[in-house]
Amino acid sequence: MDSVSYLWEQHQFLLHQCFSLPFAFLFYFLVKRGHLSMTLRYLLVAVGGSVLAVVTMGLYSSLLFTSAFVFTLLVSCVDPADIHTCSFIIQMCWQTLWHLRLQLQECYQEPVCFRFFAALSSLMLLTQRITSVSMDIQENQPPVTLLPLISYLLSFTTLLGGPLCSYGHFVSVMEGVRSPPSPLRVVLLKLAQVAVLESVRSCLWYFVNISDVESGVLEGAFLLWSLALGFRIRYYSHWKVSECLNNAAGFGFWEDPSGGHSQTWSGLCDGDFWTTEASSSMSEFSRRWNLTTALWLRRLVYIRCSHFPLLTTFVFSMWWHGLHLGHCVGFSTWAFSVKADHCVHRCLLPQLSPTWRKVYTLLGWVNTQMLLTCIVITVELRDLSGLRLLYQSYIALFPLAHIILLFVSLKFI
Question: Which residues are known to be catalytic?
Answer without folding.
Answer: 290, 321
